[in-house]
């Protein structure tokens, strides 16, 4: 996938994944990777920024597999932000699709 496409939609996918279920970092990497190929080095800075912007809050939960895990939970502000990004994404996708469809008449 084009890296610029991926960069533009990554934030929305992360927000949506956490909206569906509180997740810890590595679990989130795995979930997002089901949609687009990402690595931990991409996700963790984004999580930090979204937390600093108050779209996520975090809490620790004990793990049977090691130290406690930091879970991310979408705040009310995060839900509103995710909804606005989703709306923008749908409009953007429709406009690009419409333009590409119109271009087919020139083939």
UniProtKB/TrEMBL annotation:
Tree of life domain: Bacteria
Domain Transcription regulator PadR N-terminal residues, every copy: 14-78
Any Pfam family hit: PadR
Protein name: PadR family transcriptional regulator
């Amino acid at each position: 996938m084009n890296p610029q496409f991926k960069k533009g939609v990554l934030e929305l996918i992360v927000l949506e994944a956490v909206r569906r279920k509180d997740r810890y970092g590595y679990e989130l990497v795995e979930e997002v990777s089901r949609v687009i190929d990402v690595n931990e080095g991409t996700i963790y800075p984004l999580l930090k920024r979204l937390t600093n912007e108050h779209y996520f809050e975090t809490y620790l939960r004990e793990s049977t597999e090691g130290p406690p895990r930091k879970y991310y939970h979408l705040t009310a502000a995060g839900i509103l932000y995710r909804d606005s990004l989703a709306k923008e994404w749908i409009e953007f996708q429709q406009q690009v699709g419409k333009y590409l469809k119109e271009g087919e008449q020139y083939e």
